[in-house]
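Repro:
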Amino acid sequence: MWVKSYSIITNKVTKEQLWKLFADVNAWHTWDDGIEYAKLEGKFEKGNYFLLKPKGGPQVKVILTETIKNKTFTDVTIFPLAKMYDEHIFEETPNGLKITNTISVRGVLAFLWIKIVAQDLVKHLPQDVARQIDSASKL
């Protein structure tokens, strides 16, 4: 299994603001330049799924495997012979809110999906999380 994480501590946003940003899946394209659209019908909760179309890529189905309001959520994208998990954790610390994003890939063809998708996602995590903080702070 391949795993990469990125964490930052900030005082610019609350866990409630971040949760509100992520729970509004249909508006992700307004703050994530890499997304053409994301569509969720129903609630942002475990067991539900959304469709996501990255710019320049095919639409994928993303399943919410864990959601704990204002604390954490994990989703999984199922590729042929591999799965990519994306975990988000919001944790209050004495120095501010710690935001951790962990991407992992498992499966027989994990090496392929790491090269095609996951490495690029991980490479952009610092900029993406900064954009998330900025966007959520306005909510």
